[in-house]
Amino acid sequence: MEPEDFDSEDKEMLSWDINDMKLPQNVKKTDWFQEWPDSYEKHIYSSEDRNAQRHLSSWAMRNTNNHNSRILKKSCLGVVVCSRDCSAEEGRKIYLRPAICDKARQKQQRKRCPNCDGPLKLIPCRGHGGFPITNFGKHDRRFIFLQSKGEHDHPKPETKLEAEARRTMKKVHTASASVPLKLKESPEAKIKHTLPR
C-alpha cells in the first residue's frame, strides 16, 4: 500500500512522535507486546498490558534523565561478553546482561567468564548515531505509546529470567561445594564428648 492510499486516521497512526502534545486516541487495534524492540519502531499498547505498563524490554536498559516527566526514557547498556569469545557446551556464546548501576557494571567487568574463566568485557550500545539506543514510553489515557530510536549494534544479552536462573544455579553450586561432609559419630562417641572429665 502506498502512503497516498492511507486515509487520515491511518496516517495519524503512523506519523505520531512520543513528544507530540496530542497522541492518537482513535486506535482501533493495539500492538502485541514486543520484548525485543529494535530499529526505529513505534508501538501502541493497551494501557491494560502489564508488560507495557512496566516498560519491559529484554534489552539491558536503564532509566535515564528526561526533562519531560510524562515520558519515560530508557537507554540500552549493551552486552557483556567473554573476551575469549568462548562458547558453552550447547554451542551458544556468552552474552551476559550488564549491571544497571555504573559501579556494579565496573565490578562486573573485573569478574571472570562463567564458562571459561576468561576476562569479561562490555560492548556498549552505539546504535543511535554513536549513542545508545533509546526507548521512550508514555501512558496517555487508554494507551501506552512506545518509540524506539536506533538499531542495536550488538548481540542480544541473556534475558532477566535467564540471568536470575544462572545466578541461582551458581549459588546452589557454590553452597553445595562449601558444605563439609560430616561423618556420622557413633552414639558412644557422642556420650564421651558430653561426659564431664
Structure notes:
Keywords: Developmental protein, DNA-binding, Nucleus, Transcription, Transcription regulation. This protein has a domain of 121 residues: N-terminal domain of TfIIb, CATH 2.20.25. Helix content is 24%, strand content 19%. It contains five helices and eight strands, in the order αβαββββαβββαα. It has a five-stranded antiparallel sheet, with no helix packed on it. The model has no long low-confidence stretch (mean pLDDT 84).
At a glance:
Strand 2 (61-63) and strand 3 (72-76) form a beta hairpin. The chain has 197 residues and is α+β, with helices and mostly antiparallel strands. 24% of the residues lie in helices and 19% in strands.
Percent in strands: 15-25%
Straight-line distance between termini: 97 Å
| Uncertain regions spanning at least 5 consecutive residues | none
Overall 3D shape? elongated
Report Rg: 25 Å
Query: In order across it, which strands form the biggest sheet?
Result: 1-8-7-3-2
* Corresponding CATH architecture of the domain at 42-162: Single Sheet
Please give the largest β-sheet: 5 strands, antiparallel
User: What is the C-level CATH assignment of the domain at 42-162?
Assistant: Mainly Beta
Total number of helical segments? 5
Question: Mean of residue pLDDT?
Answer: 84
Q: What is the H/E order?
A: HEHEEEEHEEEHH
Q: According to CATH, what is the topology of the domain at 42-162?
A: N-terminal domain of TfIIb
Looking at this structure, what is the CATH superfamily of the domain at 42-162?
GCM domain, large subdomain
